[in-house]
Amino acid sequence: MTETLFIRLGSQADDTIHWLVVAETSNDEQEIIASGELKNAQQLGELTSKAQQRQVKILVPGCDVLLKSLQVPAKSSRAMRLAAPYMLEDGLAEEVEQLFFAYADLAKDEEHNCFAAIVAHSQMQQWLSWLADADITTRYILPDVLAMPLETNAWSAVALGDSEQQQVIVRQGLWQGFVLDASAWQLQCQAFATEQAADEENKADKQASIAIAAFSPLPHSEQLTLTAMPEELPLSLMAKNYHGKLSRFNLLQGQYKVKEARSNAGRQWLWVAGVALFALLLNLSYKGAQLWQLNAEQDNVQQSIISHYKKAFPKTKRVRVSTIKSQLNRELALLGGVSDRQGFLSMLAKLQPAFAKVPALRPETLKFDGKRQELRIQATAKDYQAFEQFSVALAAANLNVKQGSQNNQGDLVTGSFSISNKVSNKNSSKRKGAAKQRSNKNNKETS
Questions:
Q1: Torsional sign, CA 68, 72, 75, 77
Q2: Which among 92, 167, 308, 381 is least surrounded, fewest beta carbons within 10 Å?
Q3: Which CATH superfamily groups domain 335-441?
Q4: Is residue 160 within 8 Å of residue 8, measured between CB atoms?
Q5: Closest by alpha carbon to 386, among 420, 426, 346, 415?
Q6: Is 413 within 8 Å of 407 (Cβ atoms)?
């Protein structure tokens, strides 16, 4: 069961405010729960509790809203709504800039294609300020004349309020109506009669007086034909027709349109999505920082490889990391047609401590004999003692060393080394056994 609070505001702050709470049943009928009146707009706060957890729909006096139907020579709705205020400008009491124009999407006919409701900005702002002060929110504001029943070939009317401030609300058609004080009802009836008489004189067939469906007792007039309808509370009557089938018009549009408030569940999901997005961005930032660090380390490693390569081969002008393996193999091949790279590299590894112990000795050339597994080094030093120290260091590394001739060339001493791995006792005995077998075989063949 859905409950709705209807509030009919006044034109001024001192005007009486009427309110009604209804509940919609399963049979699309309305059940009145409570109703009442407030003396002025300052008492709207008394309805704050009733507005909570209920839908709120506002009615405003039709005397403050001018309804106009006109034919605008424009194809698009946007162009039509831009032109309409200036087409009506001469018939308005205020400047166009001081007025708010709301538009209804009604079926067009031969005479009208634009339906506008005109109200002063000051009046709209006053109504909204009353509701805001009372902490009452609404999504709908409708002129009361458009909430009256739409009768066929007749007007609908109802009296609202007590005798002192009683008003008569009249709907004349789909987009036409008026509100006036009960004291002016008789004068308005006479004006209607005068207009009716003038219309009848201009027509061949005489028409009867204006027919009005009265939903409450109204002062009788000979110029009008009143048909008594079942009496109802005025707000109950308007609540049933608040949003009729022909129009769901709402004054809260354009600059006064209410923004949709997100539900609590929506806000929670939005918060969760925000946290997830923040976590994702944080993770991406962390991964990006890691990637940047790895790229920096990779650049450092590449620069280190290039610098070591250039240090080993100073004559090299250009070094590319992607092809440095093939360049290294080419340089190694130039050292002596190396076929046993594993043996050459393992021997270099054994030489490294010796070079570290004797930094005064500098190698000039390296040549490796793969068949004999022998490395030949041409080196220079400042004295002969460095050569002796290097030989001792090689012997300590379990290597066989044969020193070549040494020559004194100016301030430097040049010399050579032939270095090979020591053969183990087991391998030596195998070689001796194989040699003995070959000797015995030769002796037998000779005998």
A1: negative
A2: 308
A3: General secretion pathway protein M, EpsM (3.30.1360.100)
A4: yes
A5: 415
A6: yes
Task: Return the residue matching tokens 């609404």.
Answer: 138
Tokens, residue 313:
């081969």
| Residues 63, 52: Cα–Cα separation, whole Å | 29
pLDDT digits (tens, 9 = 90+) for 83-141: 999 999 998 989 999 999 999 998 888 889 999 999 999 999 999 999 999 999 999 99
- Give me the residues paired with residue 379 across strands: 363, 415
Alpha helices in 175-222 (DSSP H): 185-201
Cβ contacts of 70 within 8 Å, gap of 6 or more: 84, 87, 88, 112, 113, 114, 116
Q: Indicate the domain borders of the chain.
A: 2-261, 335-441
- The whole model's pTM is what? 0.60
Question: Any idea which fold 2-261 has?
Answer: Nucleotidyltransferase; domain 5 (3.30.420)
Cα–Cα distances in Å, from 445 out to 436, 438, 439, 440?
14, 11, 10, 9
